[in-house]
Structures are given as C-alpha cells and as structure tokens.
Design a protein that fits this description.
The chain is α+β, with helices and mostly antiparallel strands and 406 residues long. The protein is built from 14 helices and 14 strands. It starts with a helix and ends with a helix.
C-alpha cells in the first residue's frame, strides 16, 4: 500500500495525471474510507478537465465529512465546489441546516440547481447528533443557522504546497487560519536562535492567533507539513463576528493563551530537555495571572507554593544584603520565557528573593500540587528544575559575595 501511495504521489508531481488517477483509484478501492485519497481523485478529475466528475466527487466527500462532524473540512470542500460551479450550494445549505437542527434527527433532500445530481445522491439522511456537535471545531461552536451561513461566505480558501511557509517570524499577523485539509507545524526560535517545533496541527485546528490577537507581528512560523487547504479569516471579518457572537472571541483567546504557553515552554531553557508530552501537560496546568505595573509578585521570606513562568513583560529580582538588611542586592531582570519560584516546588522553605514587575506582566502560575503530579509521571521535569535551582543558588551566593567584597 505504501509503495502504491508513493508511486501515485510521484505521478502527480510529474504531471502524469492519467497514471495518477489509475493508482489513486486502486488505493480508493483498497480503502474507500480514506477521504484524503478520494480528495486526490477529485483533484485529478479537475486536472484532467472533467469538472462534472470533480464536483460529483467533492460533493460525496463533503457529505462524508459533514456526517462525521468534520465541519471545517466540509467547509473547505464547499469552497472548492463553489469555485468549480458557483451554483452548487448543497453543502453550505446542509451545514446551515445541521447547525440549526443540531441534536435532532432530520432528513434533507436537495437537488442541485444545475439538475446534474439526483435526489438520492444528495440525500444526506439522518445525522447522529453525537457526531455533529462541533466539538472538533470549537471556533464554530457558537454559530448556527444564518450566522454560520454568513460566516462560511466570509472565509477565503488558500492552497499551500507541502514544505511552504504559510507565514514566517516577523510577518504581519492579519489572518486567522483554519486547517480544512492537511497538516501544519509551528516553529519558534529558542534561546540559541535555533528553530524548534512546538506544535503539530491537523484538520479542524486553527492557528495564527498569537499575532492576530495581540495585533503584532508573528513570533512563530507556520509550515505546511503536507499539501494544505486553509480557510482564512481577516481581522475586519473576525471583529464583526466577535461583536455578534462573543463566544468566538472567547475560544480564540483560550487557544491564544494555551498556544503562547506552549511556545514559551519550548524556548525556556529549563524545559528544553523535557519531552514534548511533558511540556504539553505542564501547559494544561498553568493558570494565567496578570500583574500591574511595579506590583510585587513574591516577597523574600514569605511562604510560597507556586512556580511562575513569564509569558510577557519583565520582572526585577533582588534580595536583602547579608551585611546590611536595609540594602538590596540586584539579581537581575527576567523576561519572556524566564521563570522563578522554583524553590517552592522543591522545598517548603520561604521565598529567597523578592520579584517585582517592571511594567505590566503576564505570568503563568503552576501550583506545587500540580507540579508534583506531573513530576511523578515525568521524573525528568523534577530533575531539570532541581538542576536550575542549584545553579540559581550559586548565582545568588556569588552576587552576595561580590557586594561584600566591593
């Protein structure tokens, strides 16, 4: 099967679409449930100039995606169908009806305006309410009926070849992206400047929310791991939808917080040696905390039971002088990706330094109890925190001695 698939891909790359069609037909006969193969057949129909066959194939694919609850994929296919034949509105009508009647059994029979499709071919039948729940696509969960219909119209389809950059570090973040078909990876520069993958995304996922929500340039790069069909939302459209359906903004903000944390964990030296699954589990347990300008975050000598990771902003770290308690010893500035409070995770001792915000700061807070649960499952997490703790103790002692000798 793998050799057959490889040969089929090579035939497409060479432009030998007749051979590719034959090979993909074999693959489809071996496994008719693989919708990606069916999509390839539809694409080849189009390449060979058989628009009617391509539309027929795409309609069947959209039907399967919709019945299985893969809403974004069905929308992407719908965009392709409308490009080939603007009169074909069955898929969009179907999704609108599904969203309006979500949770109920119903039947829909539609005949295409061109009259080229029979009613029984377009009968989507009864839909299992457990499948069409929008759970796979939380961004669309607050939309139904006419709202979903108009939202679909506002999306733009973009095709990207495998290996191509969808956007790069430093690009303007003016769009939010939904993956209709294909796979995408997100990369970010670590402390050494080397790019590291911090997230793999699949059909139904959305991305680009960091720059989009913060209205800044992209701090990560998005690369197509395979040929992709993406649905794009521009800022003006998004702002209108948030105004009419606040749930959309809430979902994107939640993902924004999670994705930012995943990226920060990737570039933070303390977590670089930890397996990705452990980093993702840590990310799920951190809680967002916003600090106003110059507010103390932790104070030397107080009890502590939490660890902090800086999501944005800077903090100043200082401790009392060993020779004069009224004097302070500066231990440096910490920025995005830096951390503090690790002593609380490893001991029950009081805080060994004061940390104060330098301007507004966003922190991700992890409790000792959550840390212990994760460290028990992934012992490497505790080992790297302990190693950094020892290093930080040595740096504090060195700073105290330097002041004493000055």
């Amino acid at each position: 099967m793998s050799d057959l698939r490889t040969d089929a891909k090579k035939a497409v790359l060479k432009g030998d679409y007749k051979k590719a069609f034959k090979l993909y037909t074999e693959l489809h006969e071996k496994d008719s449930s693989d919708l990606r193969v069916h999509v390839k057949l539809a694409e080849i129909h189009e390449k060979l100039g058989d628009t009617t066959a391509a539309v027929n194939a795409y309609l069947k694919i959209a039907k399967e995606y919709a019945e299985q609850g893969f809403v974004v994929q069905a929308i992407a296919i719908n965009k392709i169908i409308l490009r080939l034949d603007p009169n074909q509105t069955q898929v969009k009508d179907h999704l609108k009806h599904l969203s309006s009647e979500r949770g109920e059994d119903w039947a829909l029979t539609t005949i295409g305006p061109t009259g080229s499709f029979k009613a029984d071919e377009m009968d989507f039948g009864k839909v299992d309410k457990s499948k069409f729940s929008f759970e796979r696509t939380p961004l669309l969960s607050s939309l139904s009926g006419d709202k979903l219909d108009v939202f679909i119209d506002s999306l733009k389809l973009k095709h990207v070849k495998a290996g191509d950059y969808i956007y790069n570090v430093g690009d303007a973040g003016n769009h939010l992206y939904l993956i209709g078909m294909g796979q995408v990876r997100l990369e970010t520069p670590d402390a050494t400047g080397k790019r590291k993958v911090f997230s793999h995304l699949f059909e139904g996922d959305f991305f680009g929310e960091y720059a989009f929500m913060s209205r800044s340039v992209c701090v990560e790069a998005a690369v197509a791991d395979s040929d992709c069909s993406l649905l794009m939302i521009d800022r003006g459209t998004f702002d209108k939808w948030v105004a009419s359906s606040p749930g959309i903004g809430s979902v994107v903000e939640d993902f924004y917080r999670q994705r930012v944390l995943e990226r920060v964990l990737t570039i933070t030296p303390i977590f670089m040696g930890i397996p990705q699954e452990a980093r993702l589990e840590l990310a799920r347990h951190f809680q967002l905390r916003t600090i106003v300008e110059d507010e103390p975050i932790v104070n030397e000598g107080e009890a502590g039971d939490a660890f902090f990771l800086i999501r944005s902003g800077k903090v100043r770290v200082f401790t009392r002088s060993m020779r004069n308690n009224a004097e302070v010893v500066g231990l440096g500035l910490l920025k995005e990706g830096d951390f503090f409070g690790e002593v609380a995770l490893l001991t029950h001792k009081p805080r060994t330094a004061t940390v104060q915000a330098q301007g507004a700061v966003e922190l991700m807070e992890l409790s000792r109890s959550d840390f212990d649960l994760i460290a028990d499952k992934h012992p490497s997490v505790r080992r790297v925190v302990e190693a950094f703790h020892k290093k930080r103790v040595q740096e504090t002692i060195r700073a105290q001695l330097n002041q004493k000798n000055s």
